[in-house]
Amino acid sequence: MGGDDTIANIVLLTAKEHYIVHRLLTKIYPNNKKLLYAVWRLSNYNFIPNSKVYETIRKEIAKVQSTVISVIDNDGNTLQVRKDDERYLSGELKGINYNKVLVTDSLGNAFIVEKTDERYLCGELKAIATGKVSVKDEFNNTYQVATDDERYLNGELTHINKNKVTLKNSNGDTIRVDKNDERYLSGELVGLSKGCITVKNPDGECFRVDKDDERYLSGELVGINKGFSHSEESKHKMSNSRKGKPSKNNKQIIYEGVKYNSITEASKILKKSRSTLRKLCLFL
How many structural domains is the chain composed of? Predict the structure, then answer.
């Protein structure tokens, strides 16, 4: 690492040896992401490793990619930072596609425009996913179909995220799992918003921070609904929409074969949170 290009510092390697050297470098310098990306490129184009090694590298790449995001600063410069970078969380740096949308024109050409683009607002340009939905079949093959596709409407094809939930572990890494995943049910994996709150700064910009963020505790950042109140008309509409609809908390449930008059009752008796019981019980 860091050597010059003199003859004494150059060694002739076979393709296999070249690959092994790059793989060893990722072990010697585990925090160097460029070395990891280099061995990943070699694994896909120059040398195909066995399935176990390929899987290991793929997981390492996925872990790195799950923690970084491409952003743009106020001068238009693009860079990659960690998702917990203070500048990104505060809104100083924004995702490169912030307030942008992928669209198609009448000829089928695809490109990205600002959401405020007049052609997009008037309907001349349409979001590329408009009228489409990503689905999977019974063999877990995924593709896109029209939202009015008969196979999607009759349930033969289901949404790719059906019965899936995106969570985070204790390290803050995000992962998507089945709703019945034991780690989710046990609380090992939690929702992305767990321990977080969506706030706004004095300029009205909204973003998410930890509930123990010093700026939130000091009052510099406030909840997005701070100072907001519904109009009397909205309150009237919400009140009418709830009339005659029983609260889910008052419905009878069955948990582990035992019937309870409500989830609140079960929570008090079993000493379990209502959110945990909702995942596991059957509402009657």
Answer: 4
